[in-house]
Design the sequence.
């Protein structure tokens, strides 16, 4: 059991993916040389010349066959293992949950480009589920100049309306200072409602977009790929914090996110989101044992009844959809109370 949990943690917390064990070029050359040497020695024995030569060549071939499957040129292992349609430079940006979603066929190639202000902007592809959209892009400096420009990226709906809070929660920096000739990146979006099937990617050198200063690239998704890929787990657990009753309604597991929803929504001061910190501890709590956790990616709010309040409807974490945890514990600090002890909610996933 402990071994299983350790393996899960290694896979989940790898951050920068562990490279496959590689056999160096020198090791391969030594193996081939050893095989050839055996062949030469065998040839000196005239009585068994033909059989020994064959044995030497066979040994060489077997050594090459044994080494070849695990030996790759440095930096190419991700390219060789890329699922069809995913460039290596896109796959190299993915976390483990992203890779797992891509393996399930949730990556959709876009490969659309446009030029603006001496830059070529390309939308490479999109990973999406019912709540999250991760847009992979490439910026290429075509001017040949070493001088970089700040590029701004944003999104519009099909009616041309800029998508902003509370409809969309941008979890990545939309301002890119491109100091390299070619820059690869991604922006992760969380939608308050479901992920739309159509969206427009906009990029330009102006913060407020004008038709002449930006390019717009339409993105169309096949929503059937992720339809039904979610599991809803009822929780209905309440606690009283700072005089407020807070109830977790349910947890939704999706390929790209774990969403903890409050029912009813929690009324908080508009200043509380800046101070609130949420962690999700993985596995059962045990005495004298280190507790692994993941931090929240974002929280989803809506307008409150007055200007000083806002409504917290959900907290979003990285995906646990492909993991096998029986229990997690939500710990929230910064509810606007004087109590320094953060409140914990133990949540059964099975």
Sequence:
């Amino acid at each position: 059991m402990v071994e299983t949990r350790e393996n899960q943690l290694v896979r989940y917390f790898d951050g920068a993916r562990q490279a496959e064990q590689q056999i160096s070029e020198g090791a391969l050359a030594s193996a081939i040389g050893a095989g050839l040497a055996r062949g030469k020695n065998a040839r000196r024995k005239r009585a068994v010349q033909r059989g020994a030569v064959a044995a030497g060549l066979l040994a060489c071939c077997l050594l090459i066959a044994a080494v070849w499957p695990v030996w790759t040129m440095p930096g190419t292992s991700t390219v060789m293992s890329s699922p069809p349609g995913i460039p290596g430079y896109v796959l190299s940006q993915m976390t483990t949950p992203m890779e797992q979603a891509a393996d399930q066929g949730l990556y959709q190639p876009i490969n659309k480009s446009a030029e603006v202000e001496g830059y070529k902007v390309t939308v490479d592809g999109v990973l999406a589920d019912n709540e999250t959209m991760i847009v992979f892009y490439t910026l290429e400096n075509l001017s040949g100049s070493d001088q970089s420009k700040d590029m701004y990226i944003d999104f519009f709906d099909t009616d041309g309306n800029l998508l902003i809070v509370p409809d969309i929660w941008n979890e990545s920096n939309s301002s890119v200072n491109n100091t390299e000739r070619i820059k690869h990146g991604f922006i992760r979006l969380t939608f308050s409602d479901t992920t739309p099937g159509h969206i427009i990617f906009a990029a330009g050198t102006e913060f407020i977009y004008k038709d002449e200063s930006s390019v717009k690239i339409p993105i169309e998704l096949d929503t059937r790929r992720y339809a039904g890929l979610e599991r809803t787990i009822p929780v209905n657990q309440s606690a009283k914090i700072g005089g407020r009753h807070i109830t977790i309604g349910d947890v939704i597991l999706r390929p790209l996110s774990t969403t903890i929803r409050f029912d009813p929504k929690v009324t908080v001061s508009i200043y509380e989101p800046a101070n609130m910190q949420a962690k999700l501890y993985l596995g059962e709590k045990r005495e004298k044992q280190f507790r692994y956790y993941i931090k929240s990616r974002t929280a989803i709010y809506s307008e409150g009844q007055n200007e000083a309040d806002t409504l917290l409807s959900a907290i979003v974490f990285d995906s646990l959809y492909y993991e096998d945890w029986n229990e997690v514990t939500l710990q929230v600090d910064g509810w606007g109370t004087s109590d320094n002890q953060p409140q914990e909610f133990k949540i059964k996933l099975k």
Summary: The longest helix spans residues 25-44. The longest strand covers residues 257-269. The radius of gyration is 27 Å.
